[in-house]
Amino acid sequence: MELDLIQSTLRENGLDGWLFYDHHRRDPIAYRVLKINPPMCTRRWFYLIPAEGNPSKLVHRVERHNLAGLPGHEIEYSTWKEQHEGLNKVLEGKKRIAMQYSPLNNIPYVGLVDAGTIELVRGLGVEVVSSADLVQLFEARWSEDALASHLEAGKVVHAAVRAAFAAIRDAVRVGKRISEYDVQQEMRRVFDAGDVIMDEGPVAAVNRNSANPHYMPEPGNSSSIGANDFVLLDVWGKMDKPGAVYFDITWTGFVGAEVPRCYVEVFEIVKEARDAAVSFVQAAMKSGRTIHGYEVDDVAREVITRRGYGPNFVHRTGHSIGEEVHGNGANIDNFETRDTRPIIPRICFSIEPGIYLEEFGVRSEVNVFVEESSARVTGEVQEAVVPILG
What we know:
The chain is of the alpha/beta class. It folds into 2 domains: about 5-140, Creatine Amidinohydrolase, Chain A, domain 1 (3-Layer(aba) Sandwich); about 140-385, Creatine Amidinohydrolase (Alpha-Beta Complex), CATH 3.90.230.10. Helix content is about 35%, strand content about 20%. The chain has helices spanning about 5-10, 30-35, 80-90, 115-120, 130-140, 145-175, 180-195, 260-285, 295-305, and strands spanning about 15-20, 45-50, 55-60, 75, 95-100, 125-130, 195, 205, 230-240, 245-255, 350, 355, 360-365, 365-370, 375, 385. The strands form 4 sheets. Strands 4-3-2-1-5-6 form a 6-stranded mixed beta sheet. Strands 7, 8, 9, 10 and 16 form a 5-stranded mixed beta sheet that branches. Strands 11-14-15 form a 3-stranded antiparallel beta sheet, with helices on one face. α6 crosses α7 (about 180-195) and α8 (about 260-285) packs antiparallel against α9 (about 295-305).
């Protein structure tokens, strides 16, 4: 735990402390920031990092081990009355603290503390503000090892995409039936060979199914892929080792030697939106200008709207990437939510605009890693729809 840095950041932001709370592991952020992994969490615990001085613990006597190893004075409780009294002692003299809370739940990844607990803290005369910016600083920034794991996973993920297109090509050329599920399993075999894991997926979606942003092929409910079909692959994974972070991309292809104009035109618009968003981030970092997640979304969305497909872009432009494929840093979003978190060095996020029509959907996804005065796409960039039989 980066105690000194957390405390200095609290002081810089005019906060009296950061209050962590959990019950039944509902807040994974707390465990990652505090770097603890207790064996059992069936009782509520609180941990306050103050802007000045030593931290404080409030733990149940049945599970006094929950915060073992963390610095600070410990208060134990058994009854709910003791718990309230103990929390009052922990917060004594504090006026403004951060918790994993998001006003109006605008950032649901951070809005993890239940409303009743927020009411309890506020009832003690303490103002509660969102920890979203703190979470990004202390949980979403990547170490050099994390970045290395991302790049390593990226090689396998891209290999899986190539293997999927090859499997489709080989099957179609000999007249063999191949389904979306078959293609998914081919990509999984590449992952297994490359020591890459995923939470679910990956996705192979053909024609109308590609117009569903969260389509997932299943063994008994999967469409066949044949000549003249449009195919979308959404592929994500991370190395199978502690601390590894995800790599997440989307590519599209056409089962033919020449891609029809209808697919080319839509892809070109999506590509323009993708590249505009990436360039906007790169220019801002180079000039030292602070930008926010919602502004990057605006840039991509403006391109698609200007080209007449605004209603067909039905999701945010991108999401934070971390140890979970949807991480806890700034999302590229002014659509589903308004993410006001700044884009800061050492975070990574996807840029994945899409246009979804009745017959097909096009999405192009890259990952952007931000450095001190630059930003870069970490993998291969798709420049045209892949002619799978070409």
